[in-house]
Fold Bifunctional protein FolD.
Amino acid sequence: MTEIIDGNEVAQDIRNGLLDSIETLTDAGTTPCLATVLMNDDPASETYVSMKHKDCEEVGIATRDIELDPDTPAEELFDTIDELNADPEVHGILVQMPLPDHVDEREVLRSIDPAKDVDGFHPENVGRLVAGNARYKPCTPHGVQKLLAAADVETEGAEAVVVGRSNIVGKPMANLLIQKDEGGNATTTVCHSRTDDLAEKTRAADIVIAAAGVPEMITGEMLSEGTVVIDVGINRVETDEGSELVGDVDYDSAKEKASAITPVPGGVGPMTRAMLLWNTVKAAGDVAGIEVDLP
Ligand SMILES: NC(=O)C1=CN([C@@H]2O[C@H](COP(=O)(O)OP(=O)(O)OC[C@H]3O[C@@H](n4cnc5c(N)ncnc54)[C@H](OP(=O)(O)O)[C@@H]3O)[C@@H](O)[C@H]2O)C=CC1
Ligand SMILES: Nc1nc(=O)c2c([nH]1)NC[C@@H]1CN(c3ccc(C(=O)N[C@@H](CCC(=O)O)C(=O)O)cc3)C=[N+]21
């Protein structure tokens, strides 16, 4: 029997696990607060940002909601970030990607106070993660680690294959998997668009983590019996019945081979949002000087 790993359920457990710490912090006068900055009018981005606000509301995290018109001059975005950096009531800052072409994404990431960088994308936080001294683990890979743990998947000694090498998913995922730490100690291969014979790599894996942004590219035929399959991909595709959300994994054929698999939607996506709350609570705890219990 293939285990279907329910991301909504695990994310709910994480949110519940944060409640006591949020209450402790709030009672001590430090209500955790996340600020989001949205500077694109893509409906999907708007949906994701509003989901993040709803999640915060549910657990008692305060929010700031900043929306900038996509043709706002970059200077104004930097001014906004400076204000949030300086605001003692704001603990986490998330600038939703993608940004318009006239804004330099790297410069934006560098401008966020690393102590408030709850995405974990600032170069200082990337460096700390790589050095094995992470402050904020990036939300999507951290969420994948929590999903694997919830499904009792042992990473230590496992052969893990990450498909994708982006800065926001593939690279930090691989870095977490090779850490000498809980949820790490995996022998990790990173594949990408120039990988020769991807199927050979995925067939040798105990754990496959698909983050390529190519709809349904990982098929059952590319997997060995018993593989754990984590599908990070979120692709909107048009079908005869309208638009549909699919992952990077061909779910039906992969499920035939997998011992455990995540669905899309309802897999990694909700975990990304839950780990954002996790990082925000950690940020508030650091500011308050209170050691909070994190799930
Ligand atoms: N669930 C969630 O919370 C989140 C989901 N996502 C989703 O995850 C997916 C990946 O996102 P992201 O990392 O930002 O995407 P990017 O487009 O930034 O990176 C994709 C990576 O996949 C590699 N790749 C592309 N095509 C192939 C192929 N045919 N075979 C092997 N490797 C390939 C690319 O290789 P190369 O480097 O050579 O170009 C690149 O490294 C997307 O579907 C995205 O929507 C993203 C963030 C959060
Ligand atoms: N600074 C920044 N940080 C991010 O973390 C970030 C970003 N920019 N830009 C866009 C990507 C994408 N991303 C998702 C988060 C949650 C779901 C999610 O909750 N998905 C649900 C619902 C999907 C739906 O119904 O549309 C699911 O998969 O079940 C999806 C995608 C975060 N990202």
